[in-house]
Amino acid sequence: MTDNGCPVEISWNWGWDGQSPSVRYAFEPLSHPYPSPLRKQNPGLDFISALSASSNIDTKLFNHFWGALTVPEHLAQSSWSSIEGHSSQFFAGYDIEDTSVVPKAYFMPGAKAQMTSQTKYALVRNSLRDSPAYPLIAPSFKLLDRFIMTSALARHINAEIFSFDVKPPETTRYKIYLRCLRTSFESVRTMVTLGGLIRDDKLEQSIERLRRLWLDLFRPDHPCEQCPLTESAHRTAGILYYYEFVPGREFFP
What we know:
With 253 residues, this protein is an alpha+beta fold.
């Protein structure tokens, strides 16, 4: 889940509109590396099952997406790791807030997409449409899907991660992480506005602030919006975006 192979990542959220900061950490449940009585076939599934037993959390969504987005561990290791350089399919996380701890699930759908001859985005889209969550977020998701299906950037975009809070479907946040291999600021503007499908004065102000930060950070020789950043062949090349869907709330990238 990290470039150097560390199975733990720590971050924080400074809070919005006067909210207190929250601490966030994610980790990949791993089994014993060698055949032994300690080795587990599906450590991620075992972790969530143990969490459910101890905390009485709702695992309806988790069970659906585990079946839809993952393959048995030994198949991921044999087929997917040779292409992606890893066999990871799932990691867990927590948001630690003032009065609550929110468990989260993250799925990397590459192995299942390869075995079912789909793009990663198509697999995530189909699994979401078949889930109990879909009626709750369908209007917002259809907006993103329309962009992906019609944008000239489509061939440069694929799904990287699908995540959600491990809670009842109607109170859960859903996120789709998309990686775009185009790195010009023009492509950033397109991804954030969904090709102009989202029009909002506050969003335009945010994009302008981002443009100034972009110029300060990368200091391009020619500050044109169509110019890409220096090309990279790394596994995580490009720019990663995430789109959040919350039942009853307006969609926003």
